[in-house]
Design brief:
Elements: H1 10-13, E1 30-32, E2 35-37, H2 39-58, H3 60-77, H4 79-98, H5 117-128, H6 130-146, H7 157-171, H8 173-192, H9 204-207, H10 214-254, H11 262-282, H12 284-309, H13 312-335, H14 343-373, H15 380-412, H16 418-424, H17 429-434, H18 440-470, H19 479-499, H20 502-511, H21 513-538, H22 541-553, E3 556-560, E4 566-571, E5 579-582
Parallel strand pairs: 3-5
Antiparallel strand pairs: 1-2, 3-4
Helix pairs in contact: 2-3, 2-10, 2-19, 3-20, 4-8, 4-14, 4-15, 4-21, 5-12, 5-18, 6-7, 6-15, 7-13, 7-15, 8-14, 8-15, 8-21, 10-11, 10-14, 10-18, 10-19, 10-20, 11-12, 11-18, 11-19, 12-18, 13-15, 14-18, 14-21, 18-19
Amino acid sequence: MSDDESGDDEWVADGLFEADPDIEPGETNVQIAGVSVQPHVVLISSVVILAFVFGTILAPDRAEQLFSWVSDGVNTTFDWVYVLAMNVFILVVLYFALSKYGKIRIGGVDADKEFSDLSWFAMLFSAGMGIGLMFWSVGEPLFHFADPLFGTEPESTAGAESAMALTYFHWGIHPWAVYGLVGLGLAFFTFNRGLPLTFRSAFWPILGDRIYGWGGHVIDILTVFATLFGIATSLGLGALQINAGLSFLGDGVLGTAIPEGTGPQVVIIGIITTFALISVGLGLKAGIRRLSNLNVILMAFLMVTVLLVGPTLFVLGLFPQTIGNYLSNLPGMSLWTGSFGGIPYEGWQGEWTIFYWGWWIAWSPFVGMFIARISRGRTVREFVLAVLFLPSLFSFLWMAIFGGTALHFELFTDQTIVGTVLEVGEEVAMFELYMLLPLTAILSGVTVLLVTTFFVTSSDSGSLVLAHITSGGLHRAPRTQRLGWALTEGIIAAVLLIGGGLSALQTASITAGLPFAFVLLVLCYSLWKGLGEEYETLESEEFAEAVDELVENRDVVVERTGTGGVTDIQDATDEEPAVDERE
């Protein structure tokens, strides 16, 4: 039922669902240069950001040494925290989806979906990890193939199968469980409780009105910090990767030298930022949505093309076999810490699994908030199962095609690329693979375009999240603030690239995953309380009376559970009478 026809949902929300109907999102904002901002969050975030940026620029080596020392301490002392927390997140979101809470609708029982299923999937995938797949789908399987775990012989058939399972493990349901948890929490408390679209709102059942005080300010400041530096470091490091890929493409395919260095990389950041500003100016539906749809189309083109021109039958057989290997070893991999393997295994765990878990957790406020923003109108069950499994399956298929094709060349031909990838880095892995396939120039050109559009969508969605937080959680983020944050992301990335502080800040961003892990464990409890209260309200007599009154006065379709709880209310067609459908 549309907002216009439902009277802005007042018939169900007033006095029943809103957490605090007396306080509107952005109510404590101030106007600075014509922009509405939450003063505490913006002021303190700006000071912290400037301090970190200048600190890493003035002393990049010392900053890198300090952050690496902290990171090593986290990896060796708290690896078990990451391992347990990531598995808890999976169990919690599955419980929410499969329990009685699964029928609760984000935005209320009369909420409509804002985006089609395809556009929604494309946007959440592009924001979540699309860019990472471009570089690690070939590189990571080859790294594990050359240096396998558990005593497997390097560069063997068993090593190849193990390499694919480990790659699936790092890019499968574990990261998407984190994103799903944060996205569900923020979407529920924003659209069902009428709270600001900021990270602080997810802790309303625990903090109450204190989310509007310093407790909430600190949560949002940490979120701004993690989001901005996550995006900025990714833009900077992505510029390095794009530059390396273009240089490789120029030398190996086009026969034209494309320079590498700080200058070209700053230009690349400028181009990406310019496109991001254009996307922001077009708005969410015309900008990110269309770019995300384009991303999926380009990915589908690359997957189909590589599958057809590569070892087709081998990849088709590899996919189900490696999925089975992944599933059969999932419990062991999920809980493995390398404790009995000594320092070598602990080092591998820190460099790979703990690195990934820290990165996914640190990015979860950004990705989760963006997913929340685009997920109104979906049930908890639909949301969780789609977020958890659809991107994972797509990632598995992508990894199987590209990683599997690379492994086929290593195992069954004299044409190998593992040595070059280990020496140069993952940024050239996909282009090295293309050199062994037909249509090298076309595949390489589409890949460079896709990498660029992925970075544009990441920058655009990051600016959207930052605008929501710094505007006091306004449900419609001001476009001026989104433009400002998109520009800020590009400037910080360029400055850090010139000053040499990118690596240090990336380490700091990943290390921030540890405190966020504890925050997300608290979020599990907070969301459980919130969903429980929602379910009780939906089953209450007061709500039943409101629905009965609506059915008497309006032409609507009401869907109910077997116990009478309302799960959906939609406008009936002009030809249909008011209906009260019970399951």
